[in-house]
Amino acid sequence: MASGSVAAPTQDGVKSPRPVVTRFAPSPTGYLHIGGARTALFNWLYARHHDGTYLLRIEDTDRARSTEPAIDAIFDGLRWLSLEGDEPATFQFARSDRHAEVAHKLIAAGQAYRCYMTQDELAAHRAKAQEERRPFRLNSPWRDADAADQPTDAPYVIRIKAPRDGETVIDDLVQGSVTVRNEEIDDFVLLRSDGTPTYMLAVVVDDQDMGVTHVIRGDDHLNNAFRQLAIIDAMSSIEGWERPTYGHVPLIHGSDGAKLSKRHGALGVDSYRDDLGILPEALFNYLLRLGWGHGDDEIISRDQAVAWFDMADVGKSPSRFDLAKLQNLNGHYLREANDARLAELVASRLEGADRALLTQAMPVLKVRAKDVNELAESAAFLFSQRPLELTEKAAALLTDEARDCLAAIHTRLSDEADWSAELLEAALKAMAEELGLGLGKLAQPLRAALTGRTTSPGIFDVLVLLGRDESLARIAAQATAPAGSQV
């Protein structure tokens, strides 16, 4: 049997491998955060590695906090990372009737009960437990009450009859064997007094009906697994429910080891794309390496990830998010990216940008950039209008002596008909030798005049990209301007 398969009973009683089915189940109460994106990635990879199915479920039962913009943001983020589900998404709220049906089946089978305890009675039980300095474990008088003694018109909740003896063991793919004494699991609510299902019930019903075999999620859900198994085990004799295999992944912390927050870079996936200029393949690679590894490999392609990924290589300790490492990784993927694709991304950040010129410029622009924003910033000089706006450092370079050099450069380059990087470099090097100057003494004021900045791609590439007429016009404008002026 493959490591990613689970056994399913056949007609002769022999268990055969059951195809792997994973799911990502976000609550649409906000953006798709970085931890959720990694959970989606691990589920997607595990399914792909084992030739299984990866499903998406929107857990929208919290109607007060679930919003359409949040749902759209989740779908948008997953599309950007190419982590859409293999089938149309399931919406949990639409399945409320099915959730209630299971709760009533559990009552009929003696595995759940109607509890008529009031809020005041519950509060009194909690207060007594606190007074006696013991954990609160509900012991409802309605657990084993005779049906004839139940009121007919009082509100009630439906509670599971949690096992009280023995223990429950989970052989977790990440955490290993984890055991909880059953006496620690209380009779939690399945169906509220208004007939709506709780999260605990809805999750397991949906997982079973969707055929989910592997539940891979954050380790903050580990305690929930023991409660959810109480429902699954109770339903096993009613509908043949089977336990899924669990994999509880440690959460992501900030670079300082503290819980991940916005100050560490805990933004929505859309912010990494729109605000930070990160490429999806870079974020994919970075999230993959947050808590999972394959030897010393850092740059891992999508195909390699599918081939190599398994839960056995997920660490037990929280991983640390480092924005600088993500940006450095992004720089690698920028250099590998298609120039026309990058030109499109940059054009969306520069008003009136010429995509053909951006594509032509991309090989020299992307060498130094770590994100799309830096690419756009470094490309802005191509579309600047005269008079050129100078940075403070660039303006400081344009002294009277520098402007005299610019005038000489203008005269020399005006004679160049072949506007190629090689010939332009040869002409300026010859000029520097004639003047007894290092090439930098000419290149620095020339860069300021052409770009308005002190940093740019190679100066000869800049001349070629701007073209002969625009280059000479920018040089002439600064050569004749008073020192310190902005022209």
Structure characteristics:
single chain, 487 residues, alpha/beta, 3-stranded parallel sheet, 3-stranded antiparallel sheet, 19 helices, 45% helix, disordered N terminus, tRNA binding, ATP binding, nucleotide-binding, cytoplasm
Secondary structure layout plus pairing:
Elements: E1 6-9, E2 15-18, E3 21-24, H1 34-49, E4 53-58, H2 68-80, E5 90-91, H3 96-108, E6 112-115, H4 119-131, E7 157-160, E8 167-172, E9 176-181, E10 189-191, H5 199-209, E11 214-218, H6 222-239, E12 245-249, E13 252-253, H7 269-274, H8 280-289, H9 302-308, E14 319-320, H10 323-336, H11 339-347, H12 355-365, H13 372-379, H14 392-397, H15 400-413, H16 421-435, H17 439-451, H18 459-466, H19 468-479
Parallel strand pairs: 3-4, 4-5, 11-12, 13-14
Antiparallel strand pairs: 1-2, 6-7, 7-10, 8-9
Helix pairs in contact: 1-9, 3-5, 5-6, 8-10, 11-12, 11-13, 15-17, 15-19, 16-18, 17-18
Explain what the structure shows.
This protein has 487 residues and is of the alpha/beta class. It has two domains: 6-252, HUPs (Rossmann fold, 3-Layer(aba) Sandwich), CATH 3.40.50; 385-487, Orthogonal Bundle (Arc Repressor Mutant, subunit A). The chain has helices spanning 34-49, 68-80, 96-108, 119-131, 199-209, 222-239, 269-274, 280-289, 302-308, 323-336, 339-347, 355-365, 372-379, 392-397, 400-413, 421-435, 439-451, 459-466, 468-479, and strands at 6-9, 15-18, 21-24, 53-58, 90-91, 112-115, 157-160, 167-172, 176-181, 189-191, 214-218, 245-249, 252-253, 319-320. It has a three-stranded parallel beta sheet with strand order 3-4-5. A three-stranded antiparallel beta sheet has the order 6-7-10. Strand 1 and strand 2 form a beta hairpin. The longest helix is centred in the middle third of the chain and has 18 residues, at 222-239. It catalyses: tRNA(Glu) + L-glutamate + ATP = L-glutamyl-tRNA(Glu) + AMP + diphosphate. Its EC number is 6.1.1.17. Residues 341-477 form the Aminoacyl-tRNA synthetase class I anticodon-binding domain. ATP binds at residue 262. It comes from Novosphingobium fluoreni.
